[in-house]
From TrEMBL:
Protein name: Glucosamine-6-phosphate deaminase
DNA-binding found in the keyword field: no
Domain Glucosamine/galactosamine-6-phosphate isomerase intervals: 27-242
Keywords: Allosteric enzyme, Carbohydrate metabolism, Hydrolase
Reaction(s) this enzyme catalyzes, per UniProt: alpha-D-glucosamine 6-phosphate + H2O = beta-D-fructose 6-phosphate + NH4(+)
Species name: Streptomyces inusitatus
């Protein structure tokens, strides 16, 4: 089956403004989103792409790199920006998010480090670094497409539960739950930083298109609350309901708690193949 992401202004029957696409598995989700990014670059070669880290978006980056190798898209003028960064890791640390993005996105796409922007997590004045990065995103013309993941507690970026829905790029203290989730990337939990710089929810909502990918049953409750639940600071990802162009891509396992799963499947299946973003 050929999947495309096509923006729907509103789901009038349900009042839900978030577009939800249910795919068979993570690979299909990665291909779908990679094609959306490739289509954006065909229309706007110098687009600013906001990327996320972690294991969930890896199929996206692999599929997009395959399209580059096949000469289906030319990303040479693309720009890449970070969603967040650990505070206190030394420059060049392999698990700093800058290093991860360079390794998983920038290098495979054949881009240079000059195309990449992110916050300085090792700055002496972290608060000033947050303000500077928030300002830089605006001066760059804004993010055209921002990739997002979702935590098991509903966080996006590192905006933990009870984060302000109007928040800007700032330093945040990680919950023990999030530190434990991220410990798999380090030798031990003790090595996971306690603080991060993250784009705020208000900053994230300024991107022109938000695309969230969630896979696996562990994310099912968070996805259902974000998409079908009330707008709430307890579920930061529910802020996507405020955005005029937000797409949530989930596999069958992550969709398993959606009450309107059949509706979402039928709505997406009815869209013409030619509809793009």
């Amino acid at each position: 089956m050929v999947y495309t992401i096509a923006h729907t202004e509103t789901h009038t029957e349900t009042g839900i403004f978030v577009e939800v696409v249910i795919v068979p598995d993570a690979a299909a989700g990665g291909e779908l989103i990679a094609e959306a990014m490739a289509d954006l670059l065909r229309r706007k070669p110098d687009a600013l792409l906001g990327v996320a880290t972690g294991s969930t978006p890896l199929p996206i980056y692999e599929a997009l790199a395959a399209k580059v190798r096949a000469a289906e898209v030319d990303p040479s003028r693309a720009r890449i920006c970070q969603l967040d960064e650990y505070v206190g890791l030394p420059a060049g640390h392999p698990e700093s998010y800058r290093s991860v993005v360079l390794r998983e996105v920038v290098d495979p796409l054949g881009l240079t480090e000059e195309s990449f922007m992110g916050p300085d997590g090792s700055a002496e004045d972290v608060a000033a670094a947050c303000t500077a990065y928030d300002r830089a995103l605006g001066e760059a013309g804004g993010v055209d497409l921002q990739l997002l993941g979702i935590g098991t507690d509903g966080h996006i970026g590192f905006n933990e539960p009870c984060s302000s829905l109007a928040s800007r790029t700032r330093i945040k203290t990680l919950t023990e739950r999030t530190r434990t989730d991220n410990a798999r990337f380090f030798d031990s939990l003790d090595e996971v930083p306690h603080h991060v710089i993250t784009q705020g929810i208000g900053t994230i909502l300024e991107a022109r298109h938000l695309v969230l990918l969630a896979t696996g049953e562990a994310k099912a409750d968070a996805v259902a609350l974000a998409v079908e639940g009330p707008l709430s600071a307890l579920v930061p990802a529910s802020a996507l309901q405020l955005h005029p162009h937000a797409t949530v891509v989930v596999d069958e396992a992550a969709a398993s708690r959606l009450k309107l799963a059949d509706y979402f499947r039928a709505t997406f299946a009815a869209k013409p193949d030619w509809q793009g973003i």
